[in-house]
Amino acid sequence: MTVGPAREGPQEATVRKATILAVLAIVVVMAGPAEGETTAELAAQVRAAETAFAATMASRDLAAFGSFVADEALFFGRRGVLRGKAAVVEGWRPFFEGRKAPFSWAPETVEVLDSGTLALSSGPVHDPEGKVTGTFSSIWRRESDGRWRVLFDKGCPVCPDPPKP
């Protein structure tokens, strides 16, 4: 009688590893949208999340802003890349100081992968007077709790008008 795990030979170990990898592959493939959710419905969720995310700037609520940022987020800015939620929140703190928001943004385009796991939102960035000063692009990830959080974010200035002929 053998007590405890039996010793595996090289062939058994290889079969066990292949089985584990196959199960993981199936889980990844099946980890798509919840049953019945279309990409249009998921895009509406991301649009609502982006709109609520932008509202945190208007309401001057840095803690709420942080709740939309993924733990491993990367935000690209003029001073380099902010890595991780804590760095993003700390890096954005100056934008939340003062009574009036220094800028605002709103989603114009939202697209979701067929898998329902990642989404892109982009749109204009406005100064306090409403003038378009740039554009933003954010990659959102649907987290295990079902919430959409920003994984990547990058803004850029408005492209200049092409020269007139």
What does this entry look like structurally?
The protein is about 35% helix and about 30% strand. The protein has about 160 residues and is α+β, with helices and mostly antiparallel strands. Strands 1, 2, 3, 4, 5, 6 and 7 form a seven-stranded mixed beta sheet that branches. A hairpin with a 5-residue loop joins strand 6 and strand 7 (about 150-155). The longest helix is centred in the N-terminal third of the chain and has 21 residues, at about 10-30.
What keywords describe this structure?
4 helices; 7-stranded mixed β-sheet; 165 residues; 30% strand; alpha+beta; Nuclear Transport Factor 2, Chain: A
Strand content: 25-35%
How many domains, as an integer?
Answer: 1
Q: Tell me the name of the CATH class.
A: Alpha Beta
- What would you say the CATH architecture is? Roll
Helix/strand order, N-terminal first: HHHEEHEEEEE
- Mean pLDDT, to the nearest integer, reads 85
List the helices and strands and how they pair.
Elements lengths: L9 H21 L8 H20 L3 H6 L1 E9 L2 E4 L1 H8 L11 E2 L3 E4 L5 E9 L5 E11 L5 E10 L8
Parallel strand pairs: 1-7
Antiparallel strand pairs: 1-2, 3-5, 4-5, 5-6, 6-7
Q: What would a concise description of this structure say?
A:
Helix content is 33%, strand content 30%.
